[in-house]
Amino acid sequence: MVGTDDTELSRDLGVFAVFTVTAGTMIGAGIFILPGPAAAGAGPAAALSFGLAGLIALVATMCAVELSTAMPQSGGSYYFTSRAMGPLVGAVVGFGAWISLIFKGSFALVGLGWYVTEFLEVPALGVALAGGLALTLVNWVGAEESGQLQNAVVVGLVAILAVFAGGGFFAADPGRWSNFAISGTEGVISTTGLVFISYLGIVKATAVAEEVEDPGRTLPRAMFGAVIFVTLLYILVMLIVTGVMEIDEIAESSAPVAEAGGRFLGSFGGSVLALAGVLATVSTANAAVLTSSRFPFAMSRDNLLPPAFERSSPRFGTPSLSIWLTGGAMVTLVVALDVEKLAKLGGTFGILVFVLLNVTVVLLRSAQPEWYDPDYRTPLSPALPLAGAVAALSLIPFMGLLSQLTAVGFVVLGAVWYLVQTWVGDPVEPDHDIRDQLLGAQYRRSIEEKTGEVGNDATLGPHVLVETVEGETNPHLLTVMRAFTDRLDADLDVLTITEVAPQLPLSEAAHDVDDDWQETIEHELALRDHAVVFDHVRAHDRTDALLGSVDDRTELVVVDWEDPIRKHHLRESHVDEILRSAFPVRLAVLKDRGTGAIGDIVVATGTGPYDRAEVEVADAIAAATGASLTLVKAIPEDASESATVSAEEYLSDLATLLSAPVETELIRTNDVETALVSRADLADLLVMGAPAHPGRYREFFGQTTDYVAAETDTSVLVVKEPEVPFRRRLWRRVRRLVG
């Protein structure tokens, strides 16, 4: 559950205010610095690279808006992902977002040095270092951002760029675009990754969600409009720069926009554009210091970083350690890396953050926690967010080995740091993790699959096949046979198999079925409306004989399990073989340990959801016998509130799908197997599901079912759904995805 505080902010920001905040995070250093490296990488097609990066950013913006309207107490990508997927993912995103903005700030400082040299003959590196130290100092003493100043800066930059675009439209020579993509598709994609750093500040704008009037309408309009507008502006600026200058000239220029403007606006126009470049780079670098320094501050409040990062300066009231660490890292990177490496490194971390935002939306939509109720919902989900995530990830192979290794390194660092903090530090916040949300999504999907299917008699076949042992008639088997016959409205085929030694011809294995035993079964079942047909098969292989007896009329196969159950005893047994086989219909294996009537049925599972088979089978028996039915689920003792609520809701929703009266029971335990054995011993019949793919496990049933079936003193019914071919399973998943 997402926590909130009691403080409410005035909701007075309209579309224009949010538009300027969002546009201001993008109209900065990127548009004044990147035309040079971008043109060198893709030529005029760099305009297309800006467009592709803008499309990916637009999808991420949609997801960010949805998350911000669901979590209005938002603090950016770290808050979204940590509250949705837990502190482990939050640590990775927190470090990633922090580092990406540090790289963006360093990138902007380099650009600041370039544009200042258009006015003063000073070393560009010296200007970048001095600018980084000055901005760090300004943020440390507590300079406050003014909304009106931000609006004025953005409007001023847009006005200057509008003049540039207007004059450049007529000055550009279309002939320079004849060799549009000088490096082909690979160059366009690689350059898309290079320019991606221009869009990293988008998520920052969602931090004002709590102050937005009617956020469900205002945020989408303002933020989508800003992304589209800035993307089109980037494309236009790139086309103009490549239309008035040669590619080699652009690549060698330290201030390409100013130099291009000087070609058709004169020296004064070039100077104005250079001044705009100075303002844009200062604004970008300052915003990077301000924003990135808040990530360690927020992570410290969640106990993911030491308390020192949360402490404020007693003199200025700002997070001193966080600000100086961030500023120091920016200055160091200015010295260590060139502008292209800074852009690609920052873009790589930004891509990972954007991908996780997209995945967060898909996960929350699937899990549907009670608190998740956004005012805006990303269209075509989950297809569109997943497509955006895939498109973003596809850029990383083109970002260079340094970027890839650094990104992997910091992901590992985030995960390791989280583990260290959980071992040696205070409890981290929030108290749930991605496993809880994934399990919630499993629960939700399980209920959706069962809805309309559980108890749907119209789709069931007319025959139940029971393999039993001649001469043996136990009461629980008869109860199960009668229950399935009634529920499925089916005739009953009772099969006895005599296994003949391989060296002996089948014709020589004389053995007749006892008529008295058949009459006993018919009498005790007392079926009036359904036929009971007996069959005796001699075979060298008992499992093959059972499979061969299944036909198009068979809906369910019940196997009477006479052998004793011990752990590992199942291997190479008849039960082992049939349940490991690709059985074409639903299968139920009964181990009878009772002599009385079935009055109490328990359906048990570990942390995962029930399969449809075991709940339907248990429901049929409970409805036929009037027995009490209890759905039991085990969860860890330290399960988070989110995991507990998801499990309770799942059991409650599942109970409503069954025809018999149902009770639910949630067991908190760190020893699932022992707890389920103890609960099963109090019942007359335990129903459990077998793994869909038992061959993947060392033991036939899987660890939990194998142990519980062996150790409990009650009768056990193990149920398995029919084997579904891989192609059909894949098709089902695709249909769920697009449906």
TrEMBL record:
Sequence ranges assigned to domain UspA in this UniProt record: 601-720
Q: Name one Pfam family in it.
A: Usp
Classify the protein's membrane topology as the record does: Multi-pass membrane protein
User: Where are the membrane-spanning stretches?
Assistant: 12-34, 46-67, 88-116, 122-141, 153-171, 177-202, 223-244, 264-291, 345-364, 376-396, 402-420
Which keywords does the record carry?
Membrane, Transmembrane, Transmembrane helix
Organism's domain of life? Archaea
Chief location category: membrane
- What name does UniProt use for this protein? Amino acid transporter
Q: Which organism is it from?
A: Halovenus aranensis
